[in-house]
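Methods — Computational structure assignment.
A single polypeptide chain was analysed. Its primary sequence is given first, followed by the predicted tertiary structure written as structure tokens.
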Amino acid sequence: MKVPAPVHVAGLAAPFAPEALSPDLRSLLAGASLVCGGRRPLEALAPLFPRAALLPLVAPLEAALVRLDEARIRGDAVVVLADGDPLFFGIGATLARRWGADAVRIHPAPSCLQLACARLGLPHHDVAAVSLHGRDAVHPFLAAALRGRPFCALTDARATPGALARLLLDRGLSHFRAHVFEELGFPGERRWEGSLQEAAGREFGPACVLLLLPGPSPRRPHIGLSAAMLASDKGLMTKAPVRAAALSLLRPAPDDIFWDIGAGSGAVALEASSLLPDGRVYAVEQVPRRALDIQENRRRCGAANLHVVLGDAPGCLASLPTPGRIFVGGGLSGGMAGPLLRELYARLAPGGRLAAACVLLDSLAACRQALRDLTSRPPELLQIAAAEARLLGDDCHLSALNPVFLVAVEKNSTSR
């Protein structure tokens, strides 16, 4: 069986001038029977391939990819035109995944990240990059914002620089300086610089390069949050010693999906978010006032990767991603322990861990029984009995906190 010839993917530097191409690329285009690319490069370079069939590369890509598959199998001489570096969130990466690395020949040009960094004299090797161009998921953007480094975002008509600035401000991350580049590399190139507050109120074009440079002293969540810094409903909050013990039992990994069920003030979710720089935390709370407290606490702490879910568990959990770690801080009384834990355990990823906090003895008994029925091993059980110093005259004394039981299980890697 004849092996198809490799497809050449040519990266182009704006403004796509024919005279700027190397002799090798000009020769490839002259001999091509099919040239695929966006409207701009196809129009700008059309004189170089007057006899080639043209395939516009427009979203959704599947129709164009199928035609490229067919042309490659036929053995046509195919050249795909790309903006900048084809492997930087580009068509080159898509084709390499689809056909294998040996099936493509990449001819890179400077990426838009390199061009934007060059405008600022900023070394691009230290800049994280994410693309929201045609993508709905914002968690890579929020994860990049938590790393304390410059980062770049490629935007589109929905995820505009203004919308992304508002998202960061809502999460308490106001310490970035924004640099927005429109029409980068073209004669009409425009550059804007300002604070996130200023960016949030401006309109930008549909496809921009957004560079965000962090300022000093960002607010960050951390283990051992002070109760005084958090908004809460009548002091409803899992106490610091219990939070620390619960997180140690759950052993979250940096990229885990973490659910906090019955989150109250969100204290456990906030501390978990500090341990999950590449993960996501979902604080689930059915009381609207408390959900608003969690949103406020997220802003105060700058916990960008924490998402607030208002609803009654387990009914509100259907749309959430599969968790690797679950903490249950509420909803276990009144005969709900068994049904709730069965549903949560079913949603838990194989190898994941679940921990529940119980104050009432009936809840503890129901929780232990439910988890015994779900696993082949007895659940782990830990009692937290701590005391806090309180002023007494010129001295202090220790005031006992209400004992709390933590019950934890790990789901078998073969469980379904």
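Note: The chain has a mean pLDDT of 93.
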